[in-house]
Amino acid sequence: MPHLFWGGADCVELAARFGTPLYVLDESVIRARCAEVRRDFLDRWPNASASYASKAFLTRTMARIVEEEGLGLDVVSLGELHTALSAGFPASRIEMHGSAKSEAELNAALDAGVGCIVVDGLMELEVLADLAARRERRAEILLRVTPGVAPHTHAYIATGHQGSKFGLPLDGDLLPQAVRLALDREFISLRGLHFHVGSQIFDPTAHVRSVIRVVEAMKRLREELGFRVLELNMGGGFGARSHPSEPHVPLSLFADAMMEALERACRVEGLEVPAVSMEPGRWIVSEAGITLYRVETVKELPGVTYVGVDGGMADNPRPALYQAVYRAVVANRPEELPDSEGTKVSMVGKCCETGDILIEEAALPPVRRGEVLALFNTGAYTFSMAGNYNRLCRPAVVLVKGGQAEVIAERQTLDDLLRGDRIPQRLARRGD
Ligand SMILES: Cc1ncc(COP(=O)(O)O)c(C=O)c1O
Fold it and tell me: In angstroms, how far is the first alpha carbon of the chain from the final one?
């Protein structure tokens, strides 16, 4: 039976060559998604721009690919900003996000000259206005708003509902207050508004309802404060499928629905259509990635067989965080089906937590110790969320193109785990 190939490379060989667990990214899938953004958003609608939400996955190589593909980059921290800048990513194409930005982050964004800062609240706006004034450097900003719409997704990855910690509510006085403050401050240039409803969403209803609610707010801001929204950023959140056999979620499903709603609502309200932007993360990178694990143990209990692998929640906390759903195959016989009569098979990680379950009910045939399993759709929010729980080393990332695999992030070593580890003098021993 043929092995699983990813980006033209044999996954069994990748596991043998680079070790496991291993994140494997197919460069051609990432580039195809960026091309789809250009074709179905940037080239289709006037005054459109798009950034890749780098929280999904960021290394310097990823920043290079995104730059070459003509997208901007959304960053939320000093670390993401530093990674982007050290890859030579143009600062003018970076947007600085974050729901609790530190002064150091705002200063770094101003010093770098990022294209836009998305301001999350009033307090941040005041701090930013002072920092910008001190430098006499103008900050281009969008105000993040909470459209008050609940998308169909897990509560932990919904962001645009009433009471969310992100942004300013559309109703009430906070938004007009922020707009007034931004217009008053000399070194703040308020371009418009931003919303992001949530993540892993497969139906554009919540995005469309958000657009309509935001246009109503745009009208109020125009009438009450004379402020015209020049740009509307509509966030990301477009879903990624859990197996390559499922239908691809086209960007146009969201882009067309949001743009048609925006044009219609602006026409009804007598407003000019603003410039538009979006910032998908997982939709660009998630399906490009798989994670390869080696089976360490198979434990058959009454009613359940546990397949324990050499990674888990340390390299992929998403199932434990918000019940993310995955699918897996055996890399040396990917087409083999589970036993129809078989008991439930759970693919579990090696961490000391009962909740370290990668797949609760895995459609796997009987597997043997030492075989390689491939978990699909792991390009987003795995490497970027990985930790060192149980002092596990973070896996390597390889990028594959035309069958050629290269390491773009090295596997952590045991010595890496000790970097920065200090023993106080009173506990020191010779040889430490
Ligand atoms: C403001 C903002 N934009 C974009 C994204 C990207 O979301 P996704 O990866 O689901 O497209 C997020 C995710 O948390 C976000 O908070």
Answer: 52
Q: How do the pLDDT tens digits run along the chain, 432 residues long?
A: 799 999 999 999 999 999 999 999 999 999 999 999 999 999 999 999 999 999 999 999 999 999 999 999 999 999 999 999 999 999 999 999 999 999 999 999 999 999 999 999 999 999 999 999 999 999 999 999 999 887 777 677 667 677 788 899 999 999 999 999 999 999 999 999 999 999 889 999 999 999 999 999 999 999 999 999 999 999 999 999 988 888 899 999 999 999 999 999 999 999 999 999 999 999 999 999 999 999 999 999 999 999 999 999 999 999 999 899 999 999 999 999 888 777 899 999 999 999 999 999 999 999 999 999 999 999 999 999 999 999 999 999 999 999 999 999 999 999 999 999 999 999 999 988
- Asked whether 281 lines ligand 1 (CB < 6 A), one says yes
Separation between Cα atoms, residue 1 and residue 330, nearest integer Å = 11
For the domain with range 97-280, which CATH number is right: 3.20.20.10, 1.10.10.60, 1.10.357.10, 3.40.640.10? Answer: 3.20.20.10
Give the nearest ligand 1 atom to 239 CA.
10
Q: How far is the CA of 382 from the centre of ligand 1 (A)?
A: 14
| CA 340–ligand 1 middle distance (angstroms) | 39
Is 98 close to ligand 1, i.e. is its CB under 6 Å away?
no
114 in Cβ contact with 94 (< 8 Å): yes
Show Cβ contacts of residue 353 under 8 Å, excluding neighbours closer than 6 positions.
313, 320
What CA–CA distance (Å, rounded) separates 76 from 61?
18
At the fourth CATH level, the homologous superfamily of domain 287-411 is Lyase, Ornithine Decarboxylase; Chain A, domain 1 (2.40.37.10)
Q: What φ, ψ does residue 159 adopt, rounded to 5°?
A: -130, -20
